[in-house]
Amino acid sequence: MHIATGIFTYNRSRHTEQVLTALRENTILPEKLFLFHDGLKDENDREEWKKVQNLLDSVDWCKKEIIVAKENKGLAESITSGIDYMLETFEAVIILEDDCVPNENYIRFMVECLERYKENEEVFSISGYTYPIKYKDSIYDAYAVGRASSWGWGTWKDRWRKFEKDNNLVKKICEDEHQSRELAIWGRDLEKMLDYQVQWKIDSWAVYWALKMIEQGGYCITPNKSLIKNIGMDGSGVHCGNTDIYNTKLEDSKRNEFRLPEQICFSDDVKERFIEFYGGYMAMNGKCGTGIIVYGLGDFFRRKEKEINESYYVVAFVDMNKEGYYEGKKIISMDELTCYKFEKIVIMLMDRDEAVRVKDKLHEEYGISEAAISLGLDTFEY
Length: 382
Prior knowledge:
By secondary structure, the chain is α/β, with parallel strands linked by helices. The protein folds into two domains: 3-277, Spore Coat Polysaccharide Biosynthesis Protein SpsA, Chain A; 282-379, 3-Layer(aba) Sandwich (Rossmann fold), CATH 3.40.50. The protein contains 13 helices and 16 strands. The strands form three sheets. It has an eight-stranded mixed β-sheet with strand order 3-2-1-4-8-6-9-7, sandwiched between helices. It is elongated.
């Protein structure tokens, strides 16, 4: 199988140099290296932009092609169009951005995985980055997660065809009970990320890829120890601020091969660890407790979700502005309350007057006893 490697750059010469140097030291070099240099956006960037151009020109240690955009495409368009370009002539791609420094084993791992799982269409993506979660040791050097990573990754032509910039992906996922629970496990944050993308507050292609994988029930193969160090968490990039929460243990030895699992599945242990890092608390709720219905899925509920989950068992939700499922729990109308068994309705509205009006309506129109209705404002600290 022929595999292309692509690096995407703009105006960070110090970062780009580290990525290129590390890639050159890999135990396996790229079959062909595509260097995508985004077009100049701001004259203030010209000096750094030119430095990056010179670094790309100096690459002489593998077969290469430099593609300089005539205009600034931005991160999302640059990457998606670049992948499309490479897949015109290659069967799979390995992707690096200018702040993802690869370990010396990175290309070897990616090639081995892309070869091993090329016929398994349930495997959507290969990641060189490992999320900072702790899980039980395995006999293998890799495991499956349900969330795609964009920090040093790869995929195949047939999988990439499923990619689409669909702003309704979260809505579609939340129409299905199982998919909504999977979203809760692998990335409750993706809903807000998609909102930011729709509002043009961010320029992300990765949110669509991650959501599509969840919708399709796909797998991402991830190494036990990370083969990528992200050096962009220094405030230099558009999308990454100063943070170290994503730091993870790096592979520190040279590898001749990786032990890859033949049968791919999600382990319960990995799911539990992922929920703690990225997921929604309702997906963790397997215990018995006071069965409640939550009224209101707004900011107040989101802030108190963990506390609610630790105290109660949520049977269903009522929200006048949402429908479908939230983290595997049905969102119902008031008229459906009689179809559910519950001990209490907790109204999670920040406006006390509105909360009282809802309480009165539940009691007077739906016959719910006042003792079975409580205001979240009185139960949880605002």
